[in-house]
């Protein structure tokens, strides 16, 4: 667990908000060579903190330990492309959704796996292949649910390690949210990789959730209310759309939640 220098957002003298993030899941949350956090969720969370007039401190650690750390009280909220799912919502609270992207399979162009019109066709093409996925993610849940017994699965602690093995040819394909593939294919090495069709989202696979949000303990009702109020304002001002254009190249912002934003109108 590491506090990244320069990630404190100073505001008025109110209780500090401790924010946990992965720091290795671009473009949601990444770490620069200088050791500073950056990304869509980092920039948005800073905007939320300014809107709330609260001091916020960001800390990065591997994803698989973040939810236990939240439950133990080490953080007040988690951000970083976290899918809103019924399973997580049973014991924790989510802010309203502020962005949504599908899950995709990616592979090097030389494998010739692209071109499937639907999931059944792609699933057939992947049979007996070596598939990489980050552990503890919705992508792993998708692989465990839809590809169990059909492929050889390799689990990774973070997206960067997964990308390295995909580029090196140590795995045939990989599964992740669309956003890491956007980031990878923008790099020089990533030009060898392509995102395979089709998009895989909650409309066909409801257990994948309805987008991403901040994750809090159930007892953080005041912070949840304040965070949602700030998100409502930032959505209405177009700030969420502007930040998503910067980090994704298109608008991933979801509409304001009518129920949570009714007091903002």
Strand content: 15-25%
Pairing-aware structural class of the strands and helices?
alpha/beta
Rg over C-alpha atoms, rounded to the nearest angstrom: 18 Å
State the low-pLDDT regions, or none. Answer: 1-6
Helix content: 25-40%
CATH homologous superfamily of the largest domain - what is it? Periplasmic binding protein-like II
Give the topology string: H per helix, E per strand: EEEEHEHEHEEHEHEHEHEEHH
Query: How much is the average pLDDT?
Result: 92
| Tally of separate helices | 9
CATH architecture of the largest domain: 3-Layer(aba) Sandwich
Number of strands: 13
The third-level CATH topology of the largest domain is D-Maltodextrin-Binding Protein, domain 2
Identify the strand order in the major beta sheet.
10-9-11-8-12
Q: What kind of sheet is the major sheet?
A: 5 strands, mixed
Q: End-to-end distance, in Å?
A: 39 Å
What is the 3D shape? globular
CATH classification, class level of the largest domain: Alpha Beta
User: How many separate domains?
Assistant: 2
Write out key terms for the chains shown:
D-Maltodextrin-Binding Protein, domain 2; 32% helix; 265 residues; four-stranded mixed β-sheet; 2 domains; alpha/beta; 9 helices; five-stranded mixed β-sheet; disordered N terminus
